[in-house]
Write a structure and sequence with these properties.
seven-stranded mixed beta sheet; single chain; alpha+beta
Length: 456
């Protein structure tokens, strides 16, 4: 059965010090650095939050993690000085970093709570999240605002929570881990990062002349005729854990020729199907599943080691709601696999060209669901001296981020936060439980369930 959380209310008080701007520890170049045409697309013009949780470590003595990370940040910004700058917008909505050295925002805080009080399963939604990552007034704009905000909150037990908010235009998950790995190395005394940063954003700028050479359903213009964009009232976030038992149960539903698919692919197909059933769209509505695909290894020559900009695409798998809900899971899986396979060097260059030609449009939001696998990104291994994190992952409801976690039973698995209207969440959990409990010989049971509980 699926393992889900219904978080018991936990309230606590966070005492914050005044926010401060941390500037590079040494003088840095004052220059204007254009972002790539992948970086500055409309869909990435936001600040993405992340939560990292660390246990106490007796070996660190009385060291204050906030002081350690603050000092290391100033040193890391010498190498990653664009993070201390501000975004400007030029002709054609082109974004550039004004490397002004104004600094990144930093907040030190203490909370009157222990890590144990958070419960045995550390996963979203986290209580008092707004207190753990304070939105400094005026800091959340895209232009002329800090590109990075860090809050370090110490808990009563000696554990601490590192909460981060970063402009997604600056980096993807791999670039984020590269920067925070550098910061962690300097926190432990390294004079320079083990991987030196590479800017070279021109590598992913549009060609001259720009030419769209691939089909990009993720940017289709779709009118929300049937109201299938999720309303934001009465929303609920719940995390679901998928260990070896759950993944095996899903794989049992697949035909032989699809059993060699990846865990990401089969889990994505499963969530797409359950989510569609839960939302109860009209049978002929088009539903989109967009999977974030890292394209770093797709390029020849390769994207340089140290490049920390965005190097991904999110191709859209498309299906009628009726087919997603009533056909076997293999239908959704084949669509997910096909969409993922479309991402090549040419595909990403085509996206960059599309951005310039069409004015940097947003991705399609109608009937869409975006997922991103960060289980292999190295988030848990970012170590400031207190050891690996016990939880680390983005905390952003618009997309489903797959993160790695070991549960209280010692099982290694994937945690996926799901964000749905409360009534739809109940249907989602019920459908997922039915899918995980069913064996590969009774798919007809699900057919009856779908027909009885949706418009399809």
């Amino acid at each position: 059965m699926s393992q889900q959380t219904t978080t018991t209310p936990l309230t606590f008080t966070v005492r914050r010090h005044e926010p401060e701007l941390i500037v590079p520890a040494k003088p840095t170049p004052r220059e204007l650095k254009p972002l790539s045409d992948i970086d500055d697309q409309e869909g990435l013009r936001f600040h993405i939050p992340a939560i990292h949780i660390y246990q106490s470590n007796p070996k660190m003595g009385n060291k204050n993690p906030a002081s350690v990370i603050r000092d290391a940040l100033a040193k890391a910004l010498v190498f990653y000085y664009p993070f201390a700058g501000r975004l400007k917008e030029g002709p054609g909505r082109k974004l550039m970093v004004d490397c002004s050295g104004q600094g990144a925002l930093f907040i030190e805080a203490e909370a009157d709570v222990t890590l144990k009080q958070f419960g045995v399963e550390l996963q979203p939604p986290f209580p008092c999240r707004e207190e753990l990552l304070y939105d400094v007034p005026g800091s959340s704009r895209i232009l002329d605002s800090p590109l990075l905000l860090i809050q370090v909150t110490r808990l009563l037990c000696g554990a601490f929570i590192l909460a981060v908010r970063v402009s997604h235009t600056m980096c993807d998950a791999f670039g984020y881990v590269q920067f925070f790995t550098a910061l962690s190395e300097m926190a432990k005394g390294a004079p320079t990062p083990s991987t030196l940063p590479v800017w070279q954003r021109e590598l992913l700028c549009a060609r001259d002349p720009p030419r769209v050479t691939c089909i990009h359903h993720e940017f289709d213009k779709v009118a929300d005729i049937d109201g299938i964009t999720i309303p934001l009232e009465n929303m609920e976030t719940r995390s679901f854990f998928f260990g070896p038992t759950e993944i095996s149960a899903i794989r049992r539903l697949l035909p032989t020729h699809l059993k060699r698919c990846t865990t990401f692919e089969v889990l994505t197909a499963c969530l797409w199907r359950c989510r569609t059933i839960a939302l109860q769209p009209n049978p002929d509505d088009e539903m989109r599943m967009m999977s974030i695909v890292n394209a770093r290894l797709k390029f020849n020559p390769r994207i340089p080691v140290g490049y920390y900009g965005n190097v991904f695409a999110y191709p859209a798998a498309i299906s009628k709601a009726r087919d997603l809900c009533n056909k076997p899971l293999g239908h959704a899986l084949e669509l997910v696999m096909k969409a993922k396979s479309e991402v090549t060097e040419e595909y990403l260059k085509s996206v960059a060209d599309l951005m310039v030609i069409k004015g940097r449009p947003n991705f399609t939001t109608v009937g869409s669901y975006i997922v991103s696998d960060v289980t292999r990104s190295g988030l848990l291994e970012i170590d400031f001296g207190w050891g690996n994190a016990v939880y680390a992952g983005p905390d952003y409801h618009v997309a489903g981020f797959y993160t790695r976690r070991i549960n209280h039973k010692g099982e290694s698995g994937i945690v996926v936060p799901i964000w749905l209207p409360c009534v739809a969440m109940k249907r989602f959990a019920k459908e997922l439980d039915i899918m995980l409990a069913r064996d590969d010989n009774d798919d007809h049971v699900n057919q009856e369930h779908v027909l009885a509980h949706s418009k399809l």
